[in-house]
């Protein structure tokens, strides 16, 4: 059985083996309820318990990385666009477009995320 290290370590190891289609895997327990984690090029959220969603962490405004999480809000500090983790909607800032959804599957307590 493969044992999980930290989310970052596991994700990094997976990314290294993956090549052109970015993807990460993370233990579901690493994603806080009512918030999200940002791992490499993905935002992985759990707005309500057991409801997992994923988005690209590339800002839809001008493609800078989204780097901040505050509860149910993620923020791109380049121009301060803010987005909801619940549905990806723009809450503030210059972005006119919502977060870009990513594909997420769950198996045995592990979340696998890839680009759609
Ligand atoms: S690139 Fe993210 S707000 Fe402008």
TrEMBL record:
The keyword Oxidoreductase applies. PROSITE patterns: RIESKE. Residues 102-116 have a biased composition (Polar residues). GO terms for molecular function: 2 iron, 2 sulfur cluster binding; dioxygenase activity; metal ion binding; monooxygenase activity; oxidoreductase activity, acting on paired donors, with incorporation or reduction of molecular oxygen. It comes from the Bacteria. Residues 96-116 are annotated as: Disordered. This is 3-phenylpropionate dioxygenase ferredoxin subunit. Keywords: 2Fe-2S, Dioxygenase, Iron, Iron-sulfur, Metal-binding, Oxidoreductase. Residues 23-113 form the Rieske domain.
